[in-house]
Amino acid sequence: MNQDMQKVLFSEEEIAQANQKLGKLLANDYKGKNPLFVCILKGAVVFLTDLVRQIPDSVDLEFIDASSYNGQTTTSGEVKILKDLDVSVAGRDVVFVEDIIDTGLTLKALMDLFKERHANSIKIVALLDKPANRQQNVKVDYVGLQCPDEFVVGYGMDYNERYRNLSYIGVLKPEVYMNN
């Protein structure tokens, strides 16, 4: 997998520092509140596990699978929910946990849905913020790292289900995805 990388964008150490920073902010803001952390599958699961270990208070975890990419490198524009939550969000303080905010389409759709479901509050924590391709104005409340407009994989993020298990975030060589 390493040979498919153009470069390492964020090292394992840089990611760990971002998780520590975000964990402290979230622990402070949600002290005594027992928030519901909603992990957006599959990409954010690695980030979620490292992030919540930085929070000393109780948090509840849930998972939703929603995407507008459907195995491509660019968005289809249509958000599909493939797996919904197992619990109600009514009256809960919800924190969406996302690996990367790119177009904002998925999070805008999910935020609208959770408002309809009467969540008490909705915040977004993202490891990476890539504003260059933003199509929806979503407020990312907690950002770990700023991402340039490049196709990144690793640390949970994938291309065709590959590269998720890399401990760093790298820029994938264009020839890897252009030939498919």
Structure description:
The chain is of the alpha/beta class and 180 residues long. The protein has a single domain (12-148), classed as Rossmann fold, CATH 3.40.50. It has 4 helices and 9 strands. It has a 6-stranded mixed sheet. Strands 1-9-8 form a 3-stranded antiparallel sheet. β5, α3 and β6 (121-129) form a beta-alpha-beta unit. The mean pLDDT is 92.
Properties at a glance:
single chain, 180 residues, alpha/beta, Rossmann fold, 6-stranded mixed β-sheet, 3-stranded antiparallel β-sheet
Q: What is the H/E order?
A: EHEHEEEHEEEEH
Poorly predicted ranges: none
CATH fold-type name: Rossmann fold
Number of domains: 1
Largest sheet: 6 strands, mixed
- CATH C-level class: Alpha Beta
- Helix fraction, binned, reads 10-25%
Q: What's the tally of helices?
A: 4
For the largest sheet, list the strands in their spatial order. 4-3-2-5-6-7
Distance between the termini: 16 Å
Number of strands: 9
What's the mean pLDDT score?
A: 92
Taken as a percent bin, the fraction of beta residues is 25-35%
Shape: globular
What's the CATH architecture? 3-Layer(aba) Sandwich
SS content category:
alpha/beta
* Rg computed from alpha carbons, rounded to a whole number of angstroms: 16 Å
Domain Phosphoribosyltransferase: 13-159
Keywords: Cytoplasm, Glycosyltransferase, Magnesium, Metal-binding, Nucleotide-binding, Purine salvage, Transferase
Protein name: Hypoxanthine phosphoribosyltransferase
Pathway: Purine metabolism; GMP biosynthesis via salvage pathway; GMP from guanine: step 1/1; Purine metabolism; IMP biosynthesis via salvage pathway; IMP from hypoxanthine: step 1/1
